[in-house]
Specification:
It contains five helices and five strands, in the order H-E-H-E-H-E-H-E-H-E. It is an alpha/beta fold. The protein has a five-stranded parallel beta sheet. Strand 2, helix 3 and strand 3 form a beta-alpha-beta unit. The protein is globular, with a radius of gyration of 14 Å.
Length: about 150
């Protein structure tokens, strides 16, 4: 089995154990590796525009807000934007701040017929620390993966 197959199997086992109805769940490091190894794989960042501007962006990610800024309501155009920007045959990895919105986006994508759908655990900023702050425990940025500040 190749490394990509191993990553997909690990992600599948995690997702199945949690009872999630999508292909799998990946750590940030694993997600980055999948993006390098799987031709045509896409990272969809579902954080809002304020988070992208103030916290940072992942290069080459497709950016589609799950919840709008300002206001925080669900993006009424999420499905249409996803269908327009992301090939349903592609390996699709969803990323948000901590893994919650991306989980919901992955569930919706699965219902829309996307089959190779993955959630990036820990998100961009990771889990809360003892002072209820993010960015110090886990996450894409803390792992030293590619990102930039606008």
């Amino acid at each position: 089995m190749g490394r990509l197959s191993d990553l997909f199997e690990l992600a599948r086992v995690r997702s199945e154990a949690a009872g999630w109805d999508y292909a799998g769940a990946l750590t940030p490091q694993e997600a980055h590796e999948v993006l390098q190894l799987a031709p045509g794989a896409m990272l969809v960042d579902v954080r809002n525009h304020a988070e992208l501007e103030w916290v940072g962006r992942v290069p080459d990610a497709v950016e589609i807000e799950w919840k709008t800024w300002p206001g925080g309501g669900l993006n009424p155009d999420f499905e249409a934007q996803l269908k327009r920007q992301v090939d349903p045959e592609a390996v699709v990895l969803f990323l948000c701040r901590s893994g919650g919105r991306s989980h919901n986006a992955a569930l919706l994508a699965r219902k829309l017929g996307y089959t190779s759908v993955y959630n990036v655990l820990e998100g961009f900023e990771g889990d809360l620390d003892a002072r209820s702050q993010r960015g110090h425990i886990g996450g894409w940025r803390h792992a030293g993966l590619p990102w930039s500040q606008s």
